[in-house]
Amino acid sequence: MLLPCVVIFALFIVWPLGKSVSLSLHGSDLFGRPDAFVGLQHYRDMLGSAEFRHILWVTFAFVLLTVIPGVLGGLAIVLLLEQHIRGIRIFRTAFALPFAFSVASASVIFATIYNPAIGLANGLLGRFGVDRIGWLTDPEWALISVSITTVWMSIGYNVLVLSAGIGAIPTEINEAATLDGAGGWRAARFITVPMLGPQLFFLIVISTIQSLQGFGQIKILTPEGGPEQSTKTLVYSIYHTAFANNASDFGAASAQAIVLLVILLACTAIQFGVLERRVHYK
Amino acid sequence: MRKLTVGRLVTYAVLVVAALAVIFPVYYVIAGSIMSPGQISAYPPDLFPHGVFTGNYEGATSTTAIGRQYLNSILQTSVITLSQLITSVLAAYAFVFMKMWGRTLLFGLFLATLMVPWESIVLPNYLTITGWELGGQRLTTSYAGTMIALVLPFLANAFGVFLLRQSFLQFPTELRDAAVIDGCGHWRFIRRILLPLNKPALMAVGLYVFLAAWNQFFWPLLIGDNANRRTLQIGISQLNDVEAADPGLILAGVTLSILPTLAIVIFGQRFIVRGLTAGAIR
Fold first, then answer.
1. Is A80–B14 a contact, with Cβ atoms under 8 angstroms apart?
2. Pairing with A157, which of A26, A44, A101, A265 sits 20 to 30 Å away (CA)?
3. Residue of A112, A198, A203 lying closest to B251 (CB–CB)
4. Does residue A1 sit within a domain?
């Protein structure tokens, strides 16, 4: 009964993992296919290259620009919804809507909005007398624009998770707080937020992992990795190194894939180690 | 009813503004899809459609391969969803009800596969699957082969196994033992007793897998080398390149593509929350 799962996992996860390591130790022929064994050459090249440091920096900046606004924004919305709001179900559904959008559909909508000539973003700015912004063409803005799209996509999920968490807080706790005179924001600050610890922790881990793996929005909004490579994250670089026209190199791309794997595992381990101790569990 | 204080007014104001900001792209994609070409690119931008212009939908369905891509996506998504449900039920059953040596260790290994990011094993999988042959031809040169290549790596996933195992563990072992003593075999027990009693968990896994498969981007981008073999997600992302001058048509395509997931988010929220937050609530 375990056989179907074991076969699929072995064939498409475990074996490729080993193969990735092996590819990363090989050079590539003209068509990007592996040829001679080159040892750790790809890793040495990577660590010594300014371009790779730039890629890591972009990846890190992208994580910060998406995880922090996404989780804090979701938390703010959920706390506001908790203030005994009327029409709470309408608000909840509204905030959950972005969750229905795939990476591709959300990115295409934002690409239309960001369009430099006829896009809505510049059109609206123009109305208020603000200069046009090169949302996706200005190196200063491209990563921010991609991050805005990403935050928009993740906010629905964050609200769903945090709402479910709030629903699980025993009502007696809040009643007791109200009796003691702690209402509204004091209750939110000292009761709701600490009780949401596990959910916030989960969201930070999940969002970080998802940001590190973000690809569709970067590929669609900034097809070449952005102006001056300003949106070239590690995952985009793996794709670009392996499938770019004329310069396909599966060996070097696999070395980057292994770096991605190590970074993801390290992040998860650090987050569990550091954050878990400060989280309140019921 | 509570008194309307300044604080509450501010709460409402912030929520309304936040909700509008989150809903705006959703509104814009639908409103823009029924605007005439002249209206959507008007300056200053016009936010409200003048009547219903159906030309964008006619254009999207006749000049692009969206209809075909819709079918491809439905096929790909249903095969993946069905297969994952079946493989997950089997594996979860074995983990819960069958005593065997190394069960805990194997389950740990299953969970470990969830830590491996797809992007770090995508290259070997690409080399493997595009290297396979079907009837003397490379797999991805035929339509059937392309569909097989699209779904093959995703026929099983440890997340479904994990979620169903949690649910099956609630089942009283005495009841199961009684059924077995009465001569009820594995298959009969699964079909007649276990599955009907675990419908919510099955729904949660099913919807989760459906959404993930429907929204896939990286893998379908690599497989499928002509428009008729693309999935819907890749199709709409390419509208963005091909039809850049016609935002109305792009938005019509996106609107069509989000209908199934929008329906799931609005009507299936309960199950989604259960599936998605399974890791967050302890």
1. yes
2. A265
3. A112
4. no
Is position B237 within any domain?
Answer: no
Residue B136 CB coordination number (10 Å): 5
Q: B159-179, pLDDT tens digit by residue?
A: 999 999 988 998 888 888 888
Could you read off the pLDDT of A72-93 as tens digits, one per residue?
999 999 888 877 677 788 888 8
In a domain, B156, yes or no: yes
Q: What does DSSP say about strands B137-138 and B133-134: parallel, antiparallel, or unpaired?
A: antiparallel
Handedness of CA A71, A73, A79, A84 (dihedral sign): negative
Number of domains in chain A: 1
Are the Cβ atoms of A77 and B237 closer than 8 angstroms? no
Looking up residue A194, the CATH number of its domain turns out to be 1.10.3720.10
- What is the number of domains present in chain B? 1
Decide: helix, strand or coil at residue B179.
helix
Distances (CA, A) of B88 to A142, A214, B189, B201: 41, 27, 16, 11
Tens of pLDDT, residue by residue over B43-76, are 677 778 887 888 888 888 888 888 899 999 999 9
Instruction: Confirm if B202 and B164 have CB atoms less than 8 A apart.
Output: yes
> Cα–Cα distance between A184 and B9 in angstroms, integer?
13
The whole-model pTM stands at 0.88
Q: What is the pLDDT of residue B282?
A: 35
We report the CATH number of the domain holding residue B152 as 1.10.3720.10
Question: Do B121 and A257 make contact, defined as CB atoms within 8 angstroms?
Answer: yes
Provide the domain limits for residue B177. Answer: 69-230
